[in-house]
Design goal:
The complex is a heterodimer.
Chain A (H helix, E strand, L loop, with lengths): L12 E3 L4 E3 L1 H18 L8 E6 L3 H12 L3 E8 L3 H18 L3 E5 H4 L3 H7 L4 H19 L4 E3 L4 H13 L3 H6 L3 E2 L7 E3 L7 H10 L16 H15 L3 H13 L11 E2 L6 E2 L5 H16 L4
Parallel strand pairs in A: 3-4, 3-6, 4-5, 6-8
Antiparallel strand pairs in A: 1-2, 7-8, 9-10
Helix pairs in contact in A: 1-2, 2-9, 7-10, 7-11
Chain B lengths: L1 E6 L2 E6 L5 E2 H7 L7 E5 L2 E3 L4 E2 L4 E6 L5
Parallel strand pairs in B: 1-7
Antiparallel strand pairs in B: 1-2, 3-6, 4-5, 4-7
Classes of the chains: A alpha/beta, B mainly beta.
């Protein structure tokens, strides 16, 4: 029987990559301390900054919001309802319940009212749903944060997300993407600072925290994420991690320390979109172009008078 | 022996030919790795070597998500 590293009682959780075991109470304590240390290590934000947490109803984003709340940060939630049937309904409900139980502010944004639902967009777009969905979420979260005076947007991206992206970018030597992969994306040119305080936690560590902290999150996977290449990359990396615990953390942290400083980000000239004013490289931003395609499709499908 | 498993919102039954079944066997039977999944009995997270009782109901949590 493993014993808790802190109190010597029966351990609930064993973390092979850290060679450490904890009871429930001391796992929660370890998790919160590590979140705080990560925020400080990467100079993400301070106690006086207004933080907007992008929440999906899943274990990562709700664990992040819970940790920021417990650590005394000024953090409100932002949920985007993607219009994906029962999945979106359950996700929104989980976020609302979470916020109500803790007396926190949750902003809800409906994509269907602003553009169209993800299933409707999938009918129009000839690319994976995760591609345009991610783009829309980044656009509206950034826009909302600016309009409401939030200094920082925090997302629940974890170590598995980051190493899966890193592996994918390395496999195809996407130098520009590699140069921009960071736990902190600085503010400026129409963008609010974006941070990822959970980059040092595996998905399992977040799920363990959510379970032990009694966070009611949505376990079900987004139906549009099935078969996503990121899941395959995560499974490949987990095989390496099983054989050699600590591989993922080393891969990511050594990339940040040793490789990233050697990469130069391509300087891209940004200007305000002529339609919405949000930053873009072209005349009209990708979201406004998408909205134009939606408008065109609804015109061609409406009965002629 | 039989085990009832609550997984991602639905309940399913798994049958094993051997009598001594451990948490690691259950995860393997479900095609999951202890690197990203774990098994829960009531409010307790079970270690990989824990023996499973015949007919009991367990919850399996898979932490991997995509998108």
């Amino acid at each position: 029987m493993r014993k808790c590293y802190k109190c010597g009682q029966k351990a609930t959780v064993y973390l092979p990559q850290h060679r450490i075991a904890f009871c429930k109470e001391h796992y929660i304590e370890w998790y919160l301390k590590r979140v705080e240390e990560t925020i400080k290590e990467f100079r993400m934000f301070g106690k006086g900054d207004r933080v907007l947490v992008a929440v999906s109803g899943g274990k990562d984003s709700l664990s992040l919001w819970d940790a920021l709340y417990r650590l005394g940060y000024d953090a409100d939630g932002f949920y985007i309802n993607l219009g994906i049937g029962e999945y979106s309904k359950r996700s929104q409900l989980a976020c609302e319940k979470f916020a109500n139980q803790r007396g926190l502010v949750l902003h809800v944004f409906e994509l269907e009212k602003a553009v169209a639902s993800v299933p409707a967009l999938k009918e129009l777009e000839n690319r994976p749903a995760c591609s345009f969905c991610g783009q829309l979420k980044r656009y509206y979260t950034n826009k909302f944060a600016k309009e409401r005076g939030y200094k920082v947007v925090a997302t629940g991206h974890n170590l598995d997300d980051e190493t899966a992206v890193l592996l994918s970018n390395v496999l195809s030597w996407q130098m520009d993407y590699l140069s921009r992969q960071s736990p902190v994306l600085s503010e400026g040119e129409g963008f609010v600072r974006r941070v990822k305080p959970l980059v040092k936690f595996s998905e399992k560590e977040n799920a363990l925290y959510a379970f032990l902290a009694k966070i009611e999150y949505v376990e079900e996977e987004c139906p549009f994420a099935e078969g996503a290449s990121s899941i395959e990359h995560k499974k490949l990396l987990s095989l390496l991690e099983e054989k050699s615990p600590g591989t993922k953390l080393r891969f990511y942290m050594d990339f940040l320390r040793r490789m990233r400083p050697m990469l130069k980000a391509e300087q891209v000239a940004l200007r305000p979109c002529s339609l919405c004013g949000e930053p873009t490289t072209g005349e009209v931003c990708s979201v406004c172009r998408l909205k134009e395609r939606v408008a065109k499709a609804s015109l061609s499908s409406s009965p002629s008078s | 022996m039989k085990v009832r498993v609550f997984y991602k919102g639905s309940l399913k039954e798994l049958e094993f030919e051997k009598e001594k079944v451990r948490v690691s066997d259950l995860l393997m039977a479900m095609g999951l790795s202890p690197e990203y999944a774990f098994v829960v009995r009531g409010e307790d997270i079970l270690p990989e070597g824990e023996l499973i009782k015949d007919g009991e109901e367990l919850r399996v949590i898979n932490a991997i998500s995509g998108g």
